[in-house]
Amino acid sequence: MSLQDRLNELKATVLTQINTTDHLDHLNEIRVNTLGKKGPITEVLRGMKDISAEERPVIGAFANEIRDLLKDALELKKAELENLALNAQLAAEKIDVSLPGTDFEPGHAHVIQQIIEQLENQFLGMGYQIAEGPEVEEDKYNFEMMNLPKDHPARDMQDTFYITPEILMRTQTSPVQARTMEKHDFTQGALKMISPGRVYRRDTDDATHSHQFHQVEGLVIDKHITMADLKGTLLKVAQELFGEKHQIRLRPSYFPFTEPSVEVDVSWNDVDENTKPEDIEWIEVLGAGMVHPNVLKMAGVDPEVYGGFAFGLGPDRFAMLKYGVDDIRNFYLNDVRFLSQFK
Ligand code: DAH
Questions:
Q1: What CA–CA distance (Å, rounded) separates 30 from 16?
Q2: What is the pTM of this model?
Q3: Which residues does the record give as Mg(2+) binding sites (predicted)?
Q4: Ligand 1 pocket by C-beta < 6 Å: which residues?
Q5: Domain check: are 141 and 246 in the same one?
């Protein structure tokens, strides 16, 4: 077979191969096999030395022509296959921007925590500090320094989880009063603090009792503090939490750590100058009073110089009143259907 014929045959075979492949890898194989150093075209060109001088340029030109033609065909096919591959990839990775997105629900603070934070912000704004104390507490701080010695009958009001005879789960946040007063340097000025936290009592859980609940203790100690300061402070707090139109009322009560002691009610309906007293519905929200001299003395504060007021309120009760929740256990069951209502 003449060289021309061989080249023509080669051209036909390779073009068929190129046209029928649909893989880039395969196409690359064809290219290497055809145009590579060991390929048929190089071989033909190597055979040139055996042909006559007149024929040589003609065959040479023809071989180059075929090589260029095959090169072009390979390039063209390569571009075509790459394009196909790209389109396939684009189709596979297509995003439908009109589909509705995935809805991520951001978390939020627990409703009790929200009430506590609201109170904290309010008291911080009035210059109070926020103090903390341990939940596993000494009998000394929880009771004795709160003017409740071992045999005091009022201990019965707070049925206690004892860990040892001297260590207990605190039944109230009042011990933080003693802990903070002990450390306070009164030459630097008044002590104004609140202390929010968990407290524990051996109560049987029902709609209004939980063996674990929250309190926010408040304490102000300075020279010349009066009951009017207490009333003014609590009125502000009640109005901030429940609304401007609410009033408070103090009723005489008893707590071992305050003298005199009061229970504080908030008006449940709006009150203005035209409201008749008998139309006001009062709800008890907290205990308070003027700090007992014994409490001051035991914490190393001179009751002849200093005095002040204290109060203890229940954020659980505030939340129940504010949102009309009729069972305290809802706050502790962690049912998101309930909790997510308070965003
Ligand atoms: N610790 C009291 C209780 O748990 C609440 C209380 C009442 C705290 C009067 C006070 C207060 O600081 O002055 O029942």
A1: 11
A2: 0.71
A3: 259
A4: 172, 174, 217, 255, 258, 287-289, 310-312
A5: yes
